[in-house]
Amino acid sequence: MEFELKILGSASATPVMDRHHTAQLLTVGASQYLIDCGEGTQRRLLEYKIRHPRIHTIFISHLHGDHFFGLFGLLGTMHLHGRTEPLQLFGPPGLDEILTTQFRYSHTRLNFELLFTAVDTTQHQQIFEDKQLTVHTLPMQHRIPCCGYLFREKPKRRHLIKEQLPAGLTPAQLAALAQGEDVYDPATNALLVRNADVTTDPTPSRSYAFCSDTLYLPGLAPLLHGVDLLYHEATFSDEMRERAAITHHSTAHQAALLAKQAQVKQLLIGHFSSRYRDLAPLLAEAQAVFPNTELGVEGKTVSL
């Protein structure tokens, strides 16, 4: 099953010619999850030929404009295109009030149900679950309430070794084996099939952590331990770490240091300040600490 992240925007507060405000799309199987929705996100969706009707859940990290100013426009387009499927929206308290005000003064009544859940940005807790994955909040430390999101694919079924399966097993018994259970004779309760004899380990589940605007927080390492892919903002180079501290942002060096401490498999850095036209120095700074680092720039796609 597909598990793919696509970067739609990589700029920080002000965009530059080839970098747009933060937005990412996570695709897991047939489901798509939008993470942040900066200005112009629906334009990026058009450019990359992504059909917004497939998006059923949106996660907003915080209420700075570069992370959610594109949301009202995207919701309006969904409405105009006749969407009727409910849309789930997660974000900090106050997002619902902002949208309600926009809807009121634009006389907009959506064709679809918008299901908003306010998240506690100070806690690490599960907020969402569907057939494919679970989502937990990751507390960030920024100038306003802010959180990241941790996406974990649910455990998969064990693989059945067909040539070792005895004849006559029912679908329910096969399902039990795939779930890791032994199968017993319903009449005598005698062991019929030992799971370990007819199955192999499941395909490993995948994980993605999105760390939005934040100070460097080494305390996040245990929550991020071993994730397959970590995105972490890297607004500044380390020579500007004092500026990063004042603005509650991180440097490329600090993002890589957290990736190393958490022993993640791969790091993407983004949310680049407009002062950096050339991103190569930021990449080099991060790779010096954590070699498996890449730039999370527009159009970048990572498949796990």
Written overview of the protein:
With 304 residues, the protein is α/β, with parallel strands linked by helices. It is 23% helix and 27% strand. It is built from nine helices and 18 strands. The strands form four sheets. A seven-stranded mixed β-sheet has the order 6-5-4-3-2-1-18. Strands 7-8-9-14-15-16-17 form a seven-stranded mixed β-sheet, covered by helices on one side. Strand 11 and strand 12 form a beta hairpin. Helix 8 packs parallel to helix 9. The model has no long low-confidence stretch (mean pLDDT 94).
Secondary-structure blueprint:
Layout: E1 3-9, E2 23-28, E3 31-37, H1 41-47, E4 55-59, H2 71-80, E5 87-91, H3 95-105, E6 114-118, E7 126-129, E8 133-139, E9 147-153, E10 159-160, H4 171-178, E11 183-184, E12 191-193, H5 195-198, E13 199-200, E14 207-211, H6 221-224, E15 229-233, H7 241-247, H8 252-262, E16 267-270, H9 280-287, E17 293-295, E18 301-303
Parallel strand pairs: 3-4, 4-5, 5-6, 14-15, 15-16, 16-17
Antiparallel strand pairs: 1-2, 1-18, 2-3, 7-8, 8-9, 9-14, 10-13, 11-12
Helix pairs in contact: 8-9
